[in-house]
Amino acid sequence: MTTSTPPLREAARAVVLDADDRVLLLRYDESGGFWATPGGSLEEGEDHATATFRELGEEFGIGEKAVELGAQLAERSKDHLVGGREVRQVEKYFLTRVSAADVDPARASQPDNIREHRW
């Protein structure tokens, strides 16, 4: 029996801190619910930094000018289910700073099954 390698899915995630150095976490309503940092997969031709800005805009309506993008903090690879399909996800994590007042899920254009958020 041969095993196949799942398709590669590149993702960008934001470790979001506010002025009090609180970390923003989201609870996604997928696979029974789980907590994670904001982010998602790269679109065609997009780099990780651009995807980080886009994802924060989609999930919270935060404009690029309201986000202070810092250094890449980490990278990890994991097998992950997306829409019931297994993928090998490679995630790059970026330090970002935003004002807590700018985080408003009601402004999200693509809430991605986000159930709640907490600092």
Automatic annotation (TrEMBL):
<keyword id="KW-0378">Hydrolase</keyword>
<keyword id="KW-0460">Magnesium</keyword>
<dbReference type="InterPro" id="IPR015797">
    <property type="entry name" value="NUDIX_hydrolase-like_dom_sf"/>
</dbReference>
<feature type="domain" description="Nudix hydrolase">
    <location>
        <begin position="7"/>
        <end position="119"/>
    </location>
</feature>
<dbReference type="Pfam" id="PF00293">
    <property type="entry name" value="NUDIX"/>
</dbReference>
<dbReference type="GO" id="GO:0016787">
    <property type="term" value="F:hydrolase activity"/>
</dbReference>
<protein>
    <recommendedName>
        <fullName>Nudix hydrolase domain-containing protein</fullName>
    </recommendedName>
</protein>
<dbReference type="InterPro" id="IPR000086">
    <property type="entry name" value="NUDIX_hydrolase_dom"/>
</dbReference>
